[in-house]
Specification:
By secondary structure, this protein is α+β, with helices and mostly antiparallel strands. The protein contains 2 helices and 17 strands. β8 and β9 (about 265-270) form a beta hairpin.
Length: about 375
């Protein structure tokens, strides 16, 4: 008798238990810790780099605007409280309206400092009109945290009529309140990122991100005066020393001998002494040791000897400068740069009567020749 035996084989679905899953998650977490730290540092550095790059790019736009303007000048700030959707967004406002701040200059109170936002629309329009085509992106007006950069500029330098390269009125201080960055109360303008905390910054839509702090080094970058901080970042410090702002100051590196004439492209010499050409000891305002050549006109009142003791009035060369003092005199020559004048002598008239004839002529001695 054949007997068949059947046995059911049960397959067990065996997965990870909760304990095993927890262990895996913990292990993966430990492995990710250094990568999380690296990513955090990368993200932080990316924001800082973007802020610094935008500050430098904005500064280069200011320089391009300066060169494209006739006469040269910097733009006034834009109203920082205007959102990107406002038709006046990014347009310079030299009347210091809206949220633009005016504050006394560091050296001359009347030469105020304007504080506002980057006038990107005005810059873009000016450069394009000057033939400098390019992508003048609005993104450079904000930092890596998407907050507006602050732009402060000396008011007299925003007009070609009043521009003087030596007339900057902005101060740079370190975190301890000492002058720094080679700025002696004479920076032309400064551009500032208010950092991660956004203290004193305006957002892209014109909102105040964070109120200006009551104390600490960051206060100088948003308290509305002409002094601003240039310091190394202190991101881990307490409220008294914390600073995450970045700043970029610009002052003139121009000549101390020349300046522009307001409202023109002319320049004038600031030297109060004499100027020598191939002459280290000039005795006159312009003292040339050599030949002076002019291809057009030389305008002068006198031509003098080298010693300056004998001079000739150039008006007399054309004759208009020569005259005799008395009405009875006549000029007979020129000597010593003056007219030689004499009073002519006339012989006494001869009293002769030719009657009943008539006068025929005069002899060389003045006597009259009568008819027969």
């Amino acid at each position: 008798m054949n007997t068949r035996k059947e046995t059911d084989l049960k397959v067990s679905d065996h997965g990870f238990t909760l304990v095993e899953l927890s262990m895996v998650i913990i292990i993966v977490g430990f492995l990710l810790i250094p990568f999380i730290g690296m990513y955090s540092n990368y993200y932080k550095e990316k924001r800082l780099t973007e802020s610094r790059d935008n500050i430098r790019e904005a500064s280069s736009y200011m320089s391009k605007f300066f060169s494209a303007s006739t006469p040269s000048r910097y733009p006034c700030p834009a109203d920082p409280a205007l959102p990107v959707t406002d038709p006046n967004y990014g347009i310079e406002d030299c009347t210091a309206g809206g949220a633009i701040i005016t504050t006394p200059g560091a050296r001359t109170a009347a030469n105020v400092v304007y504080i506002g936002a980057i006038p990107i629309t005005t810059i873009r329009n000016t450069l394009i009109a000057a033939g400098q085509e390019g992508i003048y992106a609005d993104i450079i007006t904000r930092d890596g945290y998407d907050n507006k950069l602050t732009y402060a500029v000396t008011s007299s330098l925003t007009s070609g009529a009043t521009y003087r390269f030596y007339d900057g009125q902005i101060t740079a201080l370190d975190e301890f309140g000492n002058p720094t960055a080679g700025i002696n109360d004479d920076a032309h303008f400064v551009i500032i990122s208010h950092g991660k905390n956004g203290s004193g910054a305006y957002g892209a839509y014109g909102n105040i991100v964070q109120a200006c702090p009551a104390t600490g080094p960051e206060r100088d970058n948003c308290n509305g005066d002409a002094s601003f901080v240039s310091a190394l970042g202190n991101y881990e410090g307490n409220a008294a020393s914390y600073i995450d702002d970045a700043s970029y100051f610009v002052k003139s590196g121009g000549s101390t001998l020349w300046s522009y004439v307001g409202g023109t492209n002319h320049i004038f010499n600031l030297n109060t002494g004499n100027v020598g050409i191939k002459n280290s000891s000039p005795s006159e305002k312009v003292d040339v040791n050599g030949i002076v050549r002019a291809t057009n006109n030389i305008k002068t009142e006198e031509i003098c000897t080298k010693s300056g003791t004998k001079c000739f009035d150039v008006n007399k060369i054309s004759g208009s400068g020569f005259s005799c003092g008395a009405a009875t005199q006549v000029m007979v020559g020129i000597s010593n740069s003056s007219a030689d004048c004499v009073t002519p002598a006339f012989p006494a008239p001869v009293d002769t009567d030719c009657s009943p004839g008539w006068v025929m002529g005069l002899r060389s001695d003045g006597t009259i020749i009568c008819s027969p």
